[in-house]
Fold each of these.
Amino acid sequence: MSPDAAQAKSQAHAHHHLSPARGLDVDPLLDDPKTRIIVCCGSGGVGKTTTAAALGLRAAERGRKVVVLTIDPARRLAQSMGIDSLDNTPRRVKGVEGDGELHAMMLDMKRTFDEIVEAHADPERAAAILGNPFYQSLSAGFAGTQEYMAMEKLGQLRAKEAWDLIVVDTPPSRSALDFLDAPKRLGSFLDGKLIRVLLAPAKVGGRAGMKFLNVGMSMMTGALGKLLGGQLLKDVQTFVAAMDSMFGGFRTRADATYKLLQAPGTAFLVVAAPERDALREAAYFVERLAAEDMPLAGLVLNRVHGSGADRLSAERALAAAENLDLAGDPAAENLEESRIVDQEDGKAGLRNSPDTYGSSESPAPEAAEEGSPAAKDTAQAQTTDQITAGLLRLHADRMQLLSREQRTRDRFTALHPEVAVAEVAALPGDVHDLAGLRDIGNRLAAGRPELPNPGA
């Protein structure tokens, strides 16, 4: 038995199926008028954007007015919905069937930050803030800004009451937990002690204030100036002074949106692929949602592989391929089966060796003449056997992949048997239109990789 066949046999014997996970039915979730927010979360590269778009389209075609908020910098959502580009304003998607509406938008975190400033400061102060170099850096890419602004935009959309359902595609990040943690971190920074220290000179007046400024602040600003550079520190202090009236609001709004995510009208869908790292991240997220009392609807498992011939195991496929190789290669068969020991002279030899036939140049008695019909038939049969053996090995590889994916899913189910799961099959290409999104939605509703047979 070859190493491949031995490995396949070992995997087949070691693997055992757990009780199947409870199936996730997304249609009741989408149809329930009490469901107002669906958050698709998970690690990067597992299909969150496609899942969010497919859910939004399915909900709209079932009669709801939906907006999908994506934070995907690749802009794949716009392409799949037939929109040239997405921005911070919801745009209606054409081609939606049924009585509902589908709108889509892409978070512009700088524009969202600008809107907050414009809404909470008078025009003169807003202009000073928007033109401040430190603010421009903060709003364009400060750690946690994207996640915080996603929370802000979600709060704005929910407050407008313009949509029945908001579907959120969370930001791509190293860790899926950043979506929950980063807004609080940024809010704490903007309302934190360092900002208060930098703000102190603007709030303290008179001699006491000057004394404090001359002694305490000179030491603080001197140290910060060496660390940050004098011009940057000046920009930060100018920014803080201009933002004085807004401090306190950042954490308040972050807390309000956090509570919105805990409300009964919100549902989290953890999105993953049947891979160890992605499902480990999904398990962490499930545990974190439970700890934060956030409502989990279930797990969407994308890119699940299947086989229409799964009754043929990897072990049997590899064994059959080996048999075909031996049948098509007489030399290999001789080496495998025809070893003998010459008892007279004590030497190990081969049947059909020069010692047996007398000359290494002597052909085998059964050899067909080159170019004869028999030789052509033999060559054709060998080619067919080689192709068949190759296909059997490809099938064995596929079955071993299925086995690994199943074991990974079983480990997740063992840890979290309470989590309902919907599986979506791996597709041959990217989804690029509404028909593709509709197909994904159908698979999500079916809850298993294969679509149900309409004639069944």
Amino acid sequence: MFSEVMRYILDLGPTVMLPIVIIIFSKILGMKAGDCFKAGLHIGIGFVGIGLVIGLMLDSIGPAAKAMAENFDLNLHVVDVGWPGSSPMTWASQIALVAIPIAILVNVAMLLTRMTRVVNVDIWNIWHMTFTGALLHLATGSWMIGMAGVVIHAAFVYKLGDWFARDTR
């Protein structure tokens, strides 16, 4: 029963779920209900826009890359869209909705156990950790391995923050 409910919620996709998560998270942080709703609505609109842009970009770049590969007699099967294309695709992955709170919990746990002094306030940059988890999930088909990838990547990033803190002051 629980797994069916979770599957239904996750199947709604990030365009629906991330705004709901933002609304709930904003309310927990003490924002007014109207501001919470507005923040969630903006995230939802942004996701729809990102999806449209990525679709248009791939529709435009894909044929151009294929023509270039044919003209230069190259055997290319992948279009590299860089981080502007990779990060929204990562946020749209099946694992993203769970990876975000996991990466935040790793940070909180490391802070409470004094394993780090880094407080990650830039939620957008969790996409790197989510990307690792999404790749592992896609490669293995295992949510647990994907989540382990998120945890390991997050812990490593927070430790890197500690190690390089002196150099960036």
